[in-house]
Automatic annotation (TrEMBL):
It comes from Pseudonocardia oroxyli. Disulfide bonds join 43-48. This is Dihydrolipoyl dehydrogenase. SUPFAM superfamilies: FAD/NAD(P)-binding domain (SSF51905), FAD/NAD-linked reductases, dimerisation (C-terminal) domain (SSF55424). PANTHER family: DIHYDROLIPOYL DEHYDROGENASE, DISULFIDE OXIDOREDUCTASE. It is found in: Cytoplasm. GO terms for biological process: 2-oxoglutarate metabolic process.
Length: 456
């Protein structure tokens, strides 16, 4: 078999794989990046970017519908899905082009094809073996479904929902996690009747309970029905409808069923098991430096158990490139990775939930600042709150926010958490008025014992 050698061979060109390739090339390594579909992976083509474009279109629809609330006479006449898709696809294709240019400019060898992990130092693609001193596995994840629930027709995952050519009148969403609530938000803004079914007792169950409560309240106001603590038992398609049955005996009729029950690691069929790679429930097992059990072989992104987020993949990719280059980067603190759910209202957090902080730090203090006291939030007509969690007399260990656009506040929040700031360190920092950012400043002022615009 023909052979080609490089310093580094990367299997998978999504967020984790391409970030690793870019950083490794910057550090002077020769890099082969193997991608069977499109450079950019899930995030760029079927995840972060297209869904956020839909959410932006949804926001515009809400503004058109609600213009009269601020004295602007406007009307939502309808949603032209072809127009929405062309806007969304335009965003994706511009970023795709930019990314291709970036990879080319760093002289990374992009190999198109499905790769098989052959040996700890080799990946085979269509009969050519690419060897490297190091190999990074970054094959990503896929949308899961439930046993006996076949995807097809009007039963879709986020992959098909992203190209659906009409707005459903009634949609049932199975799963109240990040992807489920983001789509719920889009469909509702586009005018659909939306029901979210979640087996766990609350929406966005990975977040602090405070955030779930506020989101559920806001969804109720938006007339999005959330059925939590309810199990799905089956779905049947007939003509133009899907009948969804629940354990409670209830049956819901919809014209679309979106299955958003999580994402599984894409680790089968690439030779991982045959090569002796250690795995646990399908995820590749790594140590905190992302090293697998095989010498010189690393894994990054959604195939490594933990938060399935693009920026985690980027950071892991950068980390691995630097580790290989001997720069000894600091281990990534998983809790320090910011998390944003871009539904309306947004949910954003970093650090520990109150329950986790109690477990880790024993005595803690919390403070909740209502966005009702924040001028910019009033202008935007959003409600919500910011909750801070600190270790008793110590640093802020968790920040949780709910409200329109609070995702934009996560930059400062993550600095506070990752720099282990105490409320007293943040309190003297001036926040511009009127911004929503001010609410974060006010929350720290209050927790430092000198509240400004805080009642009681
Ligand atoms: C609907 C949706 C919305 C999301 N929104 C957000 C968001 O707003 N923010 C956020 O941070 N994250 C978001 N995510 C998650 C984010 O997309 C993933 O965490 C991220 O893409 C993971 O990167 P990765 O590199 O591990 O895998 P992927 O991006 O999945 O990339 C893996 C790549 O490997 C390739 N590949 C697989 N097997 C082979 C093989 N044998 N040979 C060659 N190539 C192969 C695939 O084609 C793919 O391109 C979202 C995901 C979805 C589905």
């Amino acid at each position: 078999m023909p052979q080609q050698a490089a310093d580094l061979v990367i299997l998978g060109g999504g967020s984790g794989g391409y970030a690793c390739a870019l950083r490794a090339a910057e550090l002077g390594m020769s890099v082969v990046l193997v991608e069977k579909d499109k450079l950019g992976g899930t995030c760029l083509h079927r995840g972060c970017i297209p869904t956020k474009a839909l959410l932006h279109a949804a926001e515009v629809a809400d503004h058109a519908r609600d213009g009269a609330n601020v004295g602007v006479l406007s009307q939502l006449i309808g949603i032209d899905m072809a127009g929405v898709h062309s806007y969304k696809d335009g965003v994706v294709s511009r970023l795709y082009k930019g990314l291709q240019g970036l990879v080319k400019s760093r002289k990374i060898e992009l190999v198109a094809g499905a790769g098989t992990f052959h040996a700890p130092d080799a990946v085979e693609v269509d009969g050519t073996v690419y060897t490297g001193r190091n190999v990074v596995l970054a094959t990503g994840s896929y949308a899961k479904t439930l046993p006996d629930l076949e995807i097809g027709g009007r039963i879709v995952t986020s992959d098909q929902a992203l190209t659906w050519d009409s707005v459903p009148q009634k949609v049932v969403i199975l799963g109240g996690g990040v992807i489920g609530v983001e789509f719920a938000s889009v469909y509702r803004s586009f005018g659909a009747e939306v029901t979210v079914v979640e087996a766990l007792p609350r929406l966005v169950a990975g977040e602090d309970e405070f955030a779930s409560k506020l989101l559920e309240r806001a969804f109720r106001r938006r007339k999005i029905t959330a059925k939590t603590g309810v199990r799905f038992t089956g779905a049947k398609q007939a003509n133009d409808t899907v009948a969804v049955s629940l354990e409670s005996g209830e049956e819901l009729e919809a014209d679309l069923l979106l299955v958003a029950v999580g994402r599984g690691p894409n680790t089968t069929g690439h030779g991982y098991e045959q090569a002796g790679l250690a795995m646990d429930r399908g995820f590749v097992t790594t140590d905190e430096r992302l090293r697998t059990n095989l010498p010189g072989v690393y894994a990054v992104g959604d195939i490594v158990a933990g938060l399935q987020l693009a920026h985690r993949g980027f950071q892991q990719g950068i980390f691995v490139a630097e580790d290989i280059a001997g720069l000894e980067p600091a281990v990534i603190d998983e809790a320090g990775i910011p998390r944003v759910t871009y539904c309306d209202p947004e949910v954003a957090s970093v650090g520990l939930t109150e329950a986790q902080a109690r477990e880790r730090h024993g005595e803690i203090e919390t403070l909740t600042y209502d966005l009702g006291g924040n001028g910019k939030s009033q202008i935007l007509q959003t409600s919500g709150a910011i909750k801070l969690v600190r270790a008793k007399d110590g640093p802020v260990v968790g920040i949780h926010m709910v409200g329109a656009r609070v995702g934009e506040l996560i930059g400062e929040a993550q600095l506070v958490y990752n720099w282990e700031a105490e409320p007293g360190d943040v309190a003297p920092l001036v926040h511009a008025h009127p911004t929503q950012n001010e609410a974060l400043g006010e929350a720290h002022l209050a927790l430092a014992g000198k509240p400004l615009h805080t009642h009681g």
